[in-house]
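ERR on first pass: missing label on line 2. Operator R.T. fixed the label and resubmitted. Corrected input:
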Amino acid sequence: MEDILNIQGLKKVFGKFSALNGVSFNLIKGETFGLVGESGSGKSTIANTIIGIHSPTEGEVLFNGTKLWKENKYQCGEYGKIQIVFQDPRSSLDPRMTIRKIITEPLIPLSKENRKDKGSQENLIKLMKSVGLKEEQLDRYPHEFSGGQRQRIAIARAIITDPEVLILDEPTSALDVSVQAQILNLLKDIQKEKKITYLFISHNMAVIKYVSNRVGVLYKGDFVEMGNTKDVFNCPKHDYTQKLISSIIS
Amino acid sequence: MESKIESNYSLNKKNKKKSIILYKIKKNPMTILGISIIGIIILLAILAPYITSYDPTKISILERFKPPSSKHWFGTDEVGRDIFTRVIFGARISLTAGISIVVISSAIGALIGAICGYFGGNTDQIIMRIMDMILAFPTLILAMVLTATLGSSLVNAMLAIAIVKIPVYVRLLRGEALIVKNNLYVKAAKTFGLSDSYIILRHIIPNTITPIIIQLTLDLGDTILLVATLGFLGLGAKPPAPEWGTMISTGFKYMLSQWWYPTFPGLAVFLASAGFNLIGDGLRDVLDPKSVR
Amino acid sequence: MLNVEELTISFDTFEGKLNVLENVSFSINEGEILSIVGESGSGKSVSAYSILRLLDKNSKVESGKIKFYDEDLLKITSKEIRKYRGKKIGMVFQEPMTALNPTMKVGKQLLNVIMQNMDLPKKEAYTIMLNTLKDVHFDNPESIAQKYPHELSGGMRQRIVISLAMSSKPKLLIADEPTTALDVTIQAEILNLMKELVNKHNTSILLITHDISVVRSVSDKVCVMYGGKILERGYTDEVLKNPKHPYTKALLNALPDQVDENTRLQEIEGEVPDLRHRPEGCIFYSRCLNKKNRCSKETPPEIRISKDHIFYCFEEEM
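pass 2 clean. output:
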């Protein structure tokens, strides 16, 4: 059980505001780690640091043992090993690009062979199928799809590079309940097939309980509780965790 | 089941878009008027040598100051040149000048604006202050000063106008870029490791095209007017070029006795710039997503 | 107290008319909380807005009644409906920031509403204002009244909006997704507050939501809407413990909170229907797991399980 991602003492300050106060956790290969928190907890900041958008003020982010941030520069080595799916399916796809262009965009910085191989029509068809979409839809535009379908497209785009880690930032929060189930099932299937490690971020305790192996509860920039999902949900130790859990059941 | 539902969904949206555009154009008689006027002018400009048998620059003293007749539809000028011929050849000059200016200033302005909006920070601040300085001057005065400095010629007049027009596009694109860059697809592109120049060229600018096009069309009207004005002031094209402004300038002296001389070129300037303005307004109604009803 | 009968509302769109609500009926008694739960396009918000006539100009009431204490709100003039807004019927929207004037202190905004709705002089209105703030759990109402909206958290702002709506002690409070934009822990606070207000002032609440856990925590009764129609309604406990309509069942099974992590969630195949082309027969037909032939051709009948629990389906026992 090796660690694929290691966050050590991660601190992030924006001006006067401290979003993260020095958090540490690890991601075990193949698991789904649920990151729970409400607004202002810092959960998006953690995601942004791992994916290269914000540089840490202090602390390390290690991917397979290698530092991702060196002297405030993001060095991910090979591109596409860590990918992210965002919450809002409306603004995460460029309305002027075809689905084909959107899905193959992450391949651009890759090597020529990788691009040819992963971007081949054959591979694209397989990919569309695996997210529940059809080949003909490759040449359509985002506005022709519903929210749930757009999220599928976003997922296809995220897995085309065969990532090792997939960050899911509230992937179902903007979707209808009936569609949420489709997407959660899809994510489970993909994880089983491709053996991807998930960092699942959400404020929805019910969803987190359902998808995660381990859970970390974030409050105002610090972890207040962390452990196996079963343990945390059955015997929450921190008040805040209890408060969150009681919001599911009434 | 799903394919039926969704293929209906997408077909409906495509047809809806097309029919909305046609519906709006039909609804707006002014736009149709604008399109007709410009259509005619463009046609005349392209077919100029085939429509008339006269040479726009050939002097023929015997024919001087002839009033409009079946032989000379717009009459002749002080050296006997057919004014109708000169007007439609002038259309070529005005249209090419107008289009080139607008294309250059929009391209440069858009790029600068996108960079400012996307990067922000000090670069943005400095550039915007420079743009503010340019915008503080009345367009015509600045264009006049620049042309005079560079030396009066059509090319220099075009250059001057282009420079004066750039800040409009910079401002426009900067505003649009500020909005567009907050979209998640821009953030996503960054996470794929794509460069800033890729993001600006492939994501920011294509999504800001609509307002550029509207501004372009409106500007065409204004630019043609400016070119003519500079020509009128003697700062643009020089005689014997059949440029509308220059013609009005020379013809102005003969306003009282040979009324046709400045009138027809003047009419041409008016129609061309008004026509483009009408199209621009119509385009805005059509392309503006807020006015879908 | 509130009786909506066979309400049918259409919208005039570019492609023609479409019915956003069809034969919607429900009722709320005094001191009750009724939730209308549905996904996007279900018509739940339209139902709420139609009561106070807050819909766009391109909407038309095709048929039906909205009876508020025996007065049909659809038949009165727009002048008269204004007498109801904010006085006998209050409304709370989803986004508290847009409901409040950002340039005015919250105390003043509340004061203005009280003075206008209850026609009182400033001094008396001020006392009422402080009491209203205390009602919504502000321990220090004087200091809160001096704050601007942006100085308050989302949850606090929503409490201010609720206090605005409750200031004239309305008989009915309509809340459109009041907790969706708030954090989960604040959500619980707001919902508890609403329950308290119901008990204290005998106000009824019409709660619009897409979140079943919200329904579960506060509502006495629930209506499940889909594609502009009510598919099932009844007392919350009954409907959630013993759902009868295939859609309700599927919705409850699609929620991850009742399911073991090794089980797949029950998906509802397909997407929400295009209301421009309403199918004949049952609106849920295309996505139903128990569909039969007649479901696509005839309108499903009303089946009464108990005095208040009804659903619309061809299957008697499922």
